[in-house]
Design brief:
The chain has 338 residues and is of the alpha/beta class. Helix content is 40%, strand content 17%. The structure holds nicotinamide-adenine-dinucleotide and uridine-5'-diphosphate-4-deoxy-4-fluoro-alpha-D-galactose.
Length: 338
């Protein structure tokens, strides 16, 4: 297939581009480079041995996006582009709602104009909110997120479902990611957050490389085995392969369907720090701090549906995630800025 990837220079988009190229798909990357670098596009080519097309544009610029569709004639779209920082979304809800909704509306109108109806959408486990208990299954109950970023995912899932129900030509996969971490095993592409990381794994990496002094552990009094929060960390390359599997599924008429992409296993904050210590061969200083507002004690996926329907299963463990994250961090101490 010829696949247009919005946000294709970003963390998950770049790894997915590599997986798509390696599986023989043609890839068209569209990215504003607001939260990524052109270097990522060069590295994708270096790893895959094949070059994707690349268009630097904001998908909200509908005229420019339409020109790309006319030139590239994609069969399907994977839509990663958007804003993703939870705390920022609480501080600037209008910017988050308008960016994530407007960009998706512009994309959907452009796809309609050009007769492209196959879409893979980046959703998040954040749509399960606080209303359900782990493991989360796709049909476990009403979706509700606790912050504006998460609400944009809930709203967009609803909007995409309505569109697919109204017009049978649409085929839409909603992929609910758990906690993507790690990097491509080449060490050439990885996560490159702006400023101080919000998420645990990149924070640990930056402590390990000496950019930050210590990890703050947000609560060690949760009702979990070691008292720290537990999450379903998934290797970004497994996640990327999940997108290739979802794209294959779109060859059948599915209408709209949601799949969790996780491992089904939970790892604590302390256990993740230990895995990074083993990977980098140094001890990683940490300090237990108060809980972070809005955090759950535990979250992990029920992966049954993705395994049975997509024939996909995550295969890389926490040690591989830490090892590959560390390879990326140590080869690129300042991310793509090096
Ligand atoms: P990222 O910021 O690394 O990638 C997003 C890319 O989209 C960036 O390269 C950015 O420059 C680009 N972009 C943003 N707005 C754009 C626009 N209007 N037009 C064109 N390009 C634009 O983020 P990521 O971690 O790769 O996340 C990708 C998607 O997955 C997002 O939709 C995110 O909400 C979702 N997601 C991420 C996680 C996670 O933990 N990383 C978890 C669940 C869901
Ligand atoms: N944590 C720390 N210290 C830190 C950062 C995090 O102890 O510096 C803890 C958190 O309390 C939590 C765990 O590490 O227990 C994971 O936190 P992350 O911030 O890495 O990830 P979250 O599960 O909170 O959130 C992530 C994404 C969201 C997404 C959510 C559900 O950041 O965008 O998963 O998919 F919505």
């Amino acid at each position: 297939m010829r696949v247009l990837v919005t946000g294709g220079a970003g963390y998950i988009g770049s790894h997915t581009a590599v997986s798509l190229l390696e599986r023989g798909h043609d890839v068209v990357l569209v990215d504003s480079l607001d939260n990524s670098s052109r270097t990522a596009v060069e590295r994708i080519t270096q790893i895959a041995g094949r070059q994707p097309s690349f268009h630097e544009l904001d998908v909200r610029d509908e005229a420019a996006l339409s020109a790309v569709f006319l030139e590239e004639r994609p069969d399907a779209v994977i839509h990663f582009a958007g804003l993703k920082a939870v705390g920022e979304s609480v501080a600037e809800p209008l910017r988050y709602y308008s960016h994530n909704l407007d960009s998706t509306f512009a994309l959907l109108r452009t796809m309609t104009t050009h007769g492209v109806h196959n879409l893979v959408f980046s959703s998040s486990a954040t749509v399960y909110g606080e209303g359900q208990e782990a493991p989360y299954a796709e049909d476990g109950g009403l979706l509700h997120a606790t912050n504006p970023y998460g609400q944009t995912k809930v709203m967009l899932e609803r909007i995409l479902s309505d569109i697919a129900h109204a017009d049978p030509r649409w085929n839409i996969a909603l992929l609910r990611y758990f906690n993507p971490i790690g990097a491509h095993e080449s060490g050439l592409i990885g996560e490159d957050p702006n400023g101080i990381p919000n998420n645990l794994a990149p924070y640990i990496s930056q402590v390990a490389i000496g950019r930050l002094p210590q990890v703050g552990v947000f609560g060690a009094d949760y009702p979990t085995a070691d008292g720290t929060g537990e999450r379903d960390y998934i290797h970004v390359v497994d996640l990327a392969e999940g997108h290739v599997a979802a794209l294959d599924k779109l060859r059948e008429p599915i209408g709209v369907r949601a799949w969790n992409l996780g491992t089904g296993r939970a790892t604590s904050v302390f256990a993740l720090i230990q895995a990074f210590e083993a990977a980098c061969g140094k001890s990683i200083p940490y300090e237990v701090q108060p809980r972070r507002a809005g955090d759950l004690a535990q979250a992990w996926a029920d992966t049954t549906r993705a395994e049975t329907e997509l024939g996909w299963r995550a295969s890389r463990d926490i040690d591989a995630m830490a090892r590959d994250a560390w390879r990326w961090q140590s080869q690129n101490p300042h991310g793509y800025a090096d």
